[in-house]
Amino acid sequence: MTPSAEPQPYPRRQWWMAAYSHEVTRALFGTTVLGEKIVLYRTEAGSVVALSGLCPHRMFPLDLSRVVGDTVQCGYHGFRFDPTGRCVEVPSQPEPSPAVLKSYPVIEQGGAVWLWTGEPELADPKRLPDLGAMGLGQAGWGVEHHPRSLLKGRYTLLIDNLLDLSHASFLHEHTIPKAEAVARVPHELIATEQSLNLRRLGCGIPPNPFFKLLFPAHEGSVDQSFDAEYLCPALIRTGGTLYDSASGQPLGTLNFIHAITPETPTSVHYFVMTARNFRTDDPAITALNLKMGQAIQPQDTLAIEAIEAVLSSALPRPVEVSVKADVGAIQVRRRLEAQIRAEAASLAR
Amino acid sequence: MTPSAEPQPYPRRQWWMAAYSHEVTRALFGTTVLGEKIVLYRTEAGSVVALSGLCPHRMFPLDLSRVVGDTVQCGYHGFRFDPTGRCVEVPSQPEPSPAVLKSYPVIEQGGAVWLWTGEPELADPKRLPDLGAMGLGQAGWGVEHHPRSLLKGRYTLLIDNLLDLSHASFLHEHTIPKAEAVARVPHELIATEQSLNLRRLGCGIPPNPFFKLLFPAHEGSVDQSFDAEYLCPALIRTGGTLYDSASGQPLGTLNFIHAITPETPTSVHYFVMTARNFRTDDPAITALNLKMGQAIQPQDTLAIEAIEAVLSSALPRPVEVSVKADVGAIQVRRRLEAQIRAEAASLAR
Amino acid sequence: MTPSAEPQPYPRRQWWMAAYSHEVTRALFGTTVLGEKIVLYRTEAGSVVALSGLCPHRMFPLDLSRVVGDTVQCGYHGFRFDPTGRCVEVPSQPEPSPAVLKSYPVIEQGGAVWLWTGEPELADPKRLPDLGAMGLGQAGWGVEHHPRSLLKGRYTLLIDNLLDLSHASFLHEHTIPKAEAVARVPHELIATEQSLNLRRLGCGIPPNPFFKLLFPAHEGSVDQSFDAEYLCPALIRTGGTLYDSASGQPLGTLNFIHAITPETPTSVHYFVMTARNFRTDDPAITALNLKMGQAIQPQDTLAIEAIEAVLSSALPRPVEVSVKADVGAIQVRRRLEAQIRAEAASLAR
Known about the structure:
alpha+beta, homotrimer, globular, disordered N terminus, 8-stranded antiparallel β-sheet, 4-stranded antiparallel β-sheet, 7 helices
């Protein structure tokens, strides 16, 4: 399953979602991103700091340490590091050590902290996809932050999963409304330089209980446009818009925003956010979205972890076979491989 | 401990017990045999199907899937495969895919499903040892199916165990009736082209409580013939016959049939069946046999798993020393190695 | 982190603490030392025997076996071995086998059993540091045997830990009395051919509740000498002596004796004993010492296991940085490496 060959299974010149904003406080928040241990915290002024999570003195994990003022103090021998990663105190001697913690560029946007894992000088906020366009951090939208999960599977399995939504008819058969139809709806592929969108269109869909739940006042049939849009290796949007069939007027948009952050070569952090531009204050819709996420995610986790167990084992497996519905996932694999190769080539120069 | 060197620690041109007949139903039964994931099920007509347990589309394990009519439908994207393994449906497109699932020859005999892991064209039911001769699926015999177990140890440790029954005096000291005597009873080795039998003979054994349990009406001493018979890597029979010492007439035979099916290079499925040709309808004897199995098996499991832990570790261990009682086990190792080498040679041609 | 490179991460010509004396009885006591499985037991006459813990017949672990008279009887097929490791019985045949169990030189001293892992002919009791000088097995001293623990970390991490006591101010901040001061007390390094001692001296320390607990009758300030003394890879002493500041007379000595026994390349047995030459019969001091150990050990275990997890993982880590306080630990690493290299060179000759 490509791209998964070591030593570099992921692109590094990339913003990745490291945490929800609310997870980063004045206490240390430890995580692992692209195989690197990291601690996140806020300074007294409230800005987010991301530093290497290993003290270079004796490799003590800093998530077992503490914040003192704006510095991190190692819990083993008390070395202190400032928000840039510079050592400012070694308790057993008068002067600090030249030791430094690697420091990571971060942006806080759309209710999340985004971490840059490439060379710091290349960290450009413009390389983060337009979160506002999806409804994150935007007036007129209601957003739910679903609980984070950590899947024991390579991140590319999650990309594969999201870009072939025909799985909804089987894996989520009893969970997603009208799931049985998804696999058979034709889709078109809309490719731009940045993104790849698999769009399914349905016209003149008769009213059904799920649409009624979302738009109780609406009468008559609806048209639906449903996307699976790859924005970058870190971000996929699924979801779409319902229209009144008669007038062609949009009724509303519901997006599922999937942030995908590799933890190690064979595990991935998975954050789901839902964003809608209708009935934004209605707690019933919020509850519905969270409940749907709660039901769907364990099913995807089961599939991805079961496949990872196969890929990680030394046991034999058949040669992979693809079909037309995989066109999006396969183009994404090629883009991802090209991105990884381009980075490797640029580093080799 | 030979033969255990990778890449091929087991012969493949072999029938192996995959499941008890009662385990295979209209639902999918997943197992792993010789390192290959397999699903078993019955068609509407009741015949047993054995197919590869991995969907070649995205490696989803088919034991998490379902039977539809006579086909298997993958639980991820709904690909369907017929009992020969041919893909008959891809839901997202009109035509099926050329993908196939590997299909395994099976026979159902003696209350069990036997799977052929070699080239299908070589699958010959005659290569399965004569189960009826042991009492399986035979009129006039009573049979117990002991619960299956999965041991974390290479299958050759189980063969070693069964072919040196002197261990009964120590490992099963308090479990097997008159166990303390076993190690000291002399045995003879009866070799045929197919099998190797280590036979222990006891003459004029005075009545004891265990014999009384089996044959309450019998008076006087008995002669006993007790075998440990290797029939093939998949099957060992232990047990034997009691005779009236005075007349030489057989009182009855009790066999322990051990089906040994490698799961992976370091784990093994273990099925025990008991078969007897006396008091076949007596539930007290059935209960006695099951209870004895329930007590003995955990002791063998403990020994085999403890030894596997030693063999699998990187830690140093002494050079193996053998004694006369190992003659059967060592001849079996040689036959097994010869069988594996012959297969490799024939595949290389 | 040196020295940790395989294949030989530890010196073998060394006495290591295998067990407390009270742990070795007429039953088999199994342990693993330097990667070798070992069983310990006492003969009828009470002397300690240490033999390889694997039966060379079929690698059955002898800690699952039993003592018969002065011999070990394997729990699988009943092979018996005398205290020198010679096979004296094979139950299935009249004569014993030439199989032998490796036998280890042992000494029982200071309430513990010490095992020699090098060539037996080099086992010299004089190479065991002077336990009496530390208060073990000595009249006029009270000793506590803290519960043994097994840390999932390479033994050198425990040596590093004990030789940089500045960690007390952070890792044991709320546990060790006056911990906050430790990191800032200057120390001197006293090196002899055998040992390396990092001594911290404090003069004119005003009375505090902890000193009052130990020496309730004493008035006025005290001087303190506190050591972290490396005696050999198997033994480190921390602790020291309090003096009356006015007269310079010693009030008493309290030693923490740390026995460090590698189990495998990445795990270590850890035994702590406290020894004092004042109020030796006072159960309140005994309780205090045990309680302090009970609080401190889990903190050190946490640090060592967290660092081992980093070192054992394939994930990237920063280059190690050392400071002045590491001078002792670094000299010990050099001695240890030199010891290992000298052994390898002598074996290669």
